[in-house]
Amino acid sequence: MKVLIVGSGAREHALAWRIKQSPNLTRLWVAGGNAGTAALAANLDIRSSDVGSLVDAAREVAADLVVVGPEAPLAMGLADRLAKLEIPVFGPSRAAAQIEASKSFALDLMRNAGVRCPEFVSVQDKADAYAYIKTHPGPLVVKADGLAAGKGVLLCEDSGQAQAAVELCMSERAFGEAGATVVLEEYLSGPEVSVFAFCDGEHMSPLVAACDYKRLEDGDQGPNTGGMGSFVAQPDLWTPRLESEVEENIMKPVLQAMAERGSPYKGVLYAGLMLTGPVSNPTPKVLEFNCRLGDPETQVVIPSLASDPLELMMACARGDLDRIDVRWESKNYVGVVMVSGGYPGEYQTGFEITGLDDEGPEGTMVFHAGTKLGPGGLSSPPLTAGGRVLTVVGGGDNINQARQRAYSRLEQINFEGARWRRDIGVMANQRAAGTAG
Question: How does pLDDT run across 127-153, given as a tens digit for each residue?
Fold first, then answer.
């Protein structure tokens, strides 16, 4: 099977790494890619937002399957254009991708399907926003309705902060057209968990869950980021009862609602949940839906996939997932993200990364994100090329072993200005606080 992966992050490197292990694979390309994917596949110099060139590439390489990592090309209709050429794609249609591309769409969908979510209002006028804020003086969450690269979620402790957030979105247009419509949401607190289901429009796989850390610094301090680390959700948080409730009362109703709208959902459905109420018996509420795998969650989830990834993804694309036995290993994984100094603000790139060829502890992996090949290509150390540079993953029989292995491997790697959190997985039974973006 000839496969084209779209994207250039650690998520896509992890997907390439797992797909490379499939006996069904014959050729592999990555549109975008990085220094890590270059060692596994042929990188194509195509941006994930260049849908036309992506379609052309899929046709030129005669891809049997296109696997889409990021949300933007899906929201731009990549899957629809590939479908017209009868090229199978692992990812939802443009209409189905609205579940992430428009927060108001997702909230309306959930409300109509009876899925628990925060109280909310969607506004297109500042006066309406200010009126709502006046009658809801407590903490609020202000969200740009559209795609904002994970940065359009603003936690506001009081009315003044909420009004400033509305100004940022609607007047200053800090998030462009994504902020033309703003969603004002009830503020929820509790552990967060990211839940993933592989879907074929009608059927879904057993769920898998992970927890991530969005704040830059230890103890959940500092600014929000794209994600500083993650771990596979532990059984004291992700219990069989909770898994069953999420499947029956959240994932299945949404999958059915999308089908009834004429937009059957194919690909990965990702629910960002807040567990409210007593820790012993929490009530899950949906903070957001995403139309793709998460990053950095993919880096700890994909290694635990025991089924053939290409059989699974092709079944989602074809609509016969019910014929596939989807299995997840019970092994624990912890992933720690190494970032450039200055991230998520301004940072420098082009620094040599050393230690990647060292033999790490058993069960460790390194997935590249913001990297590029050095002057000597694959024979020389790669260079930094982004804010989030690497995700270092450790696997083990328990969370502590996985965490120890991840950090031991990380200590072997170095580049100028490298930063990382030192508390990933420390409180594995309690999700790190932070916004779901």
Answer: 999 999 999 988 999 999 998 877 789
Is 378 strand, coil or helix?
coil
Q: What is the token pair recorded at 326?
A: 């989807």
Cβ-defined contacts of 185-188 (< 8 Å, 24+): 185/118, 185/119, 185/120, 185/140, 185/141, 185/142, 185/143, 186/118, 186/119, 186/120, 186/140, 186/141, 187/118, 187/138, 187/139, 187/140, 187/141, 187/155, 187/156, 188/118, 188/274, 188/276, 188/285, 188/287
DSSP string for 197-251: EEEESS-BPPPEEEEEEEEEETTTEEEEEEEEEEEEPPTTTS-HHHHHHHIIIII
Q: What order do you get walking across the sheet with 89-90 strand by strand?
A: 42-44, 27-32, 2-7, 65-68, 89-90
| Predicted model pTM | 0.93
> In the prediction, which pLDDT does 430 show?
47
Lowest mean pLDDT among 46-60, 139-153, 154-168, 267-281: 139-153
Instruction: Give the chain's domains with CATH numbers.
Output: 2-91 (3.40.50.20), 119-186 (3.30.1490.20), 192-323 (3.30.470.20), 332-410 (3.90.600.10)
Contact in structure between 123 and 182 (CB atoms under 8 Å): yes
pLDDT for the residue numbered 434: 40
Q: Are 14 and 48 contacting, i.e. CB atoms less than 8 angstroms apart?
A: no
State the residue for tokens 């797992």: 18
pLDDT digit string, tens, across residues 38-68: 999 999 999 999 999 999 999 999 999 999 9
Which amino acid is it at 349? Answer: T
Signed CA dihedral, 287, 292, 297, 303: sign only:
positive
| Residue 428's pLDDT band (cuts 50, 70, 90) | low
- Strand 266-276 and strand 192-200: the pairing is antiparallel
What angle (nearest 5°) sits at the alpha carbon of residue 98, between those of residues 96 and 99? Answer: 85
